[in-house]
Amino acid sequence: MDLVGACRAFVTVSERGSFTVGAAAARMAQSVASRRVAALERHLGGRLLERTARAATLTPFGRDMLPLATSLVRLADRLEHEAEEARRGPLRLAVPDTCGAGPLARLIAAAHGAGLLLDPRPAAPAERAELVRTRQVRAALLATPAVEAAWTVPLGLAVTDGADDGPLYLDTLRPGRTDRDQRARRIWLQTEDDVPHIRDGLARLRDAVGLRPAQLAGAHGVAAAAGEVLGRGDALLCSPAQAAELGLRWRPVGEAPELARGFTLAVADASDPEAALLGVACAAGIAGCLGAREAAA
After folding, report:
1. 2, 84, 95, 183: most buried, per Cβ within 10 A?
2. Beta partners for 102?
3. How many whole angstroms separate alpha carbon 251 and alpha carbon 187?
4. Cα 289 to the chain's mean position, in Å?
5. Angle between helices 101-113 and 273-281 in degrees, nearest 10
């Protein structure tokens, strides 16, 4: 016997005092409601309803059983609701911690439009890779070389000097002979750019133009690095959007004008249809969140 279905018929009929009205409220035929209530009475060993041509009224036994039957129906409804919510749980996406709150909000809104409940989790490049590998998130935007990427973000140097927005050549940061004892201007790398395919190329360029090893340094935080730019005339490697947010002048690197971050979408489970849909339905939103100049096809 379908105990939940029988209790549902009993509850709706008793609440409305009629098999006809109660069956309609439960979205079942009157004959089905009648059979289910009769089966429940046999199962419980007592008559629940007194039937007349026009009404159905509770018996004393029915009044005792109604609260428990009602609780069972509500618990069953809650179970179905919770199961639906679990199936449509948030899609946790590991994103770069350089993504601003505004672009993230617009990405979440774009995901809503595609029927996805997105839960972004900002993290550094290595952490994002580990999160998706261990399935702590369902998808992640991984840092990759620009030539392999679905989205690319141009990189340049944020500075306070310069009469225009033309290229800034690294060799202009080379300290002169008389500056040996002075602190040379530094290029600060954010955690997002402290990855081999960006860091190693800049290190080779630093050595080629004759900069000191210490002139390429990892930043402990964006605010601290921007403070060094404002206070000491250093340079911060970043995107145009981030430079504008910090109130700094963005200039491409003269010796590497195509320098860029690259991102691809990795999913933890290839059979996850929602995670796979994300890269297609929300490609433009992801591009906006990253500050990218290209979106995945």
Report:
1. 95
2. none
3. 13
4. 11
5. 110
For residue 227 the two structure tokens come to 């403070």
Q: What's at 51, amino acid-wise?
A: R
Query: Helix, strand, coil: what percent of the chain each, to 5?
Result: 50, 20, 30
User: Coil, strand or helix: which one is 134?
Assistant: coil
Q: Which residue has the tokens 């039937």?
A: 51
Q: Tokens for 189?
A: 């790398």
pLDDT (tens digit per residue) in 143-165: 999 999 999 999 999 999 766 67
- The DSSP result for 218-245, as a single string, is E-S-HHHHHHHHHHH--EEEE-HHHHHH
Do 190 and 245 lie in a common domain? yes
44-74: string of b/e by CB count within 10 Å (b at 16+)? beeebbeeeeeebebeeebeebbeebbebbe
Residues 57 and 135 in one domain: no
* Same domain? 95 vs 71: no
Q: Tell me the per-residue pLDDT of 160-213, one tens digit each, with 9 for 90 and over.
A: 976 667 899 999 998 876 556 578 899 999 999 999 999 999 999 999 999 999
Kindly state the tokens that stand for 186. Answer: 């530094």
Q: For residue 252, which of 240, 262, 263 has the smallest C-alpha distance? A: 240
Judged on CB neighbours under 10 Å (0-12, 13-18, 19+), 98 is buried
Range of the domain at 227: 156-258
Contact 173, 184 (CB under 8 A): yes
pLDDT at residue 123 tops 90: yes
- Is the Cβ–Cβ distance between 297 and 151 less than 8 Å? no
For the question of whether the overall pTM of this predicted structure is more than 0.90, the answer is: no
Task: Return the bridge partners of 154, or none.
Answer: 260
Residue 188 has which token pair? Answer: 């600060």
Sign, CA dihedral 106-112-113-114, equals positive
